[in-house]
Write a structure and sequence with these properties.
Blueprint: H1 6-17, H2 19-35, E1 41-43, E2 49-51, H3 55-65, H4 67-93, H5 97-106, H6 111-118, H7 122-142, H8 148-162
Antiparallel strand pairs: 1-2
Length: about 160
């Protein structure tokens, strides 16, 4: 059975594969906002010109309200928490989730190499990978990146195809 919603699985894997690049991108986006010199004037609705208030305040508002920054921060938090939870799970259960994450997403090794290096069967590889992704999907849902309706959309599509 496939993990759903598909777009969220793809997004999660993107952030896993590109975790450190995405951290750098986020840092650069924030840095550009902070270092940007705000325009001194803003046109008001009535055709007049208002002086901007505190430039630092405006930058803070832009940082706190930028939807791209907020979403990127949430996905990066999900990945960070998946990695942390993988380490804990490994200690408690004797799995090698953390190593699988490193080899699959950071080192970008193929399945065969990962199975050989971790001394696991291919079936175990797929079970562990699915559990790791499921953990990420659950965290992304909890933090508000995935909505309840996103899960239902796929179910409706499946019912229509089956009927």
């Amino acid at each position: 059975m496939r993990l759903e919603p598909g777009w969220a699985v793809k997004t999660l894997e993107h952030y896993l594969y590109n975790y450190y690049d995405e951290i750098r991108k986020l840092h650069n986006i924030k840095k550009n906002i902070i270092e940007a010199s705000p325009s001194q004037f803003q046109e008001a609705g009535g055709g007049g010109i208002n002086h901007m208030s505190n430039p630092t305040e405006l930058k803070g508002i832009k940082l706190a309200s930028n939807k791209d920054i907020i979403e990127k921060e949430k996905w990066l938090k999900v990945v960070k928490d998946v990695i942390k939870n993988a380490e804990i799970h490994d200690k408690l259960s004797g799995t090698k989730y953390f190593m699988l994450i490193n080899k699959k997403y950071f080192d970008e090794l193929c399945e065969d190499q990962i199975c050989e290096e971790l001394h696991i069967e291919r079936a175990t590889y797929y079970v562990w990978k699915r559990e790791i992704l499921m953990m990420g999907i659950n965290l992304a849902t909890a933090i508000g990146l995935i909505k309840y309706d996103d899960f239902l959309k796929k179910s409706k599509t499946d019912k229509i195809k089956a009927g």
